[in-house]
Design brief:
Length: 224
């Protein structure tokens, strides 16, 4: 379900680089249904790299999918003419670090399809700082986890407020049931954290208390 939602955001006929591809299920599924033209599956770790090679071989897709053992965007070569990049199933900070350290490999014409597990705020901050506009966002709940999908393209300077970076600018507008349920449960946790801070024997740094209090206030306003 999670990867299906990601797949739905990959443009038809794309040349996709799936970074951190694990078993290469996403590029292989897209190729099998003729949705993309070609793919690179990048993996930094040997066991998932071997798994990706096996999936591609078993499906007879060696001509269409290049599986590369590489760190982040180093899997992409200019000749691949990649126009969509997916990075899924990692923390938002890890996705941000992959994008940041691989900046030189980005032409700026790629659509980014990102599926962070937490850490969405720093990832959105990186997107804004690097001129990427968020085109689509969604939340889905699977196995009691909330997953976000963020789609962005480089489109010149964009300015998001702190709250937009925290909640997601499009999700704030759409206010889907999954989005409201996610923030309702995060608010409960923030309030519990603040209560724990108040009871803590050792003083919690004031800036930490203020940060959590500010976030709880934002969420309360959002849900009002
Ligand atoms: C939890 S799996 C997610 C697999 C798949 N993308 C998905 O969403 O189901 C994360 C994968 O990313 C790989 N990975 C982590 N950091 C990476 C990096 N810097 N470059 C390439 N792959 C990386 C890991 O080895 C692991 O196989």
């Amino acid at each position: 379900m999670r990867l299906q939602r990601v797949a739905a955001q990959v443009p038809a006929g794309a040349r996709l680089a799936d970074i951190g591809s694990d078993h290469a299920y996403l590029p292989v599924a897209l190729l099998r249904r003729g949705a993309i033209a070609a793919a690179v599956a990048g993996e930094v770790a040997l066991t998932p790299f071997n798994a990706a090679c096996r999936t591609v071989r078993d499906q007879g897709l060696e001509q269409q999918v290049r599986v590369r053992l590489a760190d982040g965007l180093a899997a992409i070569e200019p000749a691949d003419a990649i126009d969509a990049i997916s990075i899924c199933g990692m923390g938002g900070e890890s996705i941000r670090d992959i994008l940041d350290s691989g900046k030189a490999r980005l032409s700026g014409r790629e659509r980014l399809i990102l599926q962070p597990n937490g850490g969405e705020q720093p990832l959105r901050q990186w997107l804004m700082d690097n001129g990427y506009r968020i085109l689509h966002e969604e939340i889905l709940r699977e196995n009691r986890f909330d997953y976000e999908v963020i789609v962005a393209e480089r489109a010149g300077p964009v300015a998001y407020t702190e709250e937009q970076l925290y909640f997601g600018p499009l999700q704030m507008q759409a206010r889907s049931p999954a989005f409201l349920a996610k923030w309702q449960s995060i608010l409960q946790r923030k309030q519990q954290t603040l209560a724990n801070f108040a009871r803590a024997r050792q003083a919690v740094p004031e800036d930490k208390v203020q940060q959590v209090a500010r976030q709880a206030r934002w969420i309360t306003e959002l849900l009002a």
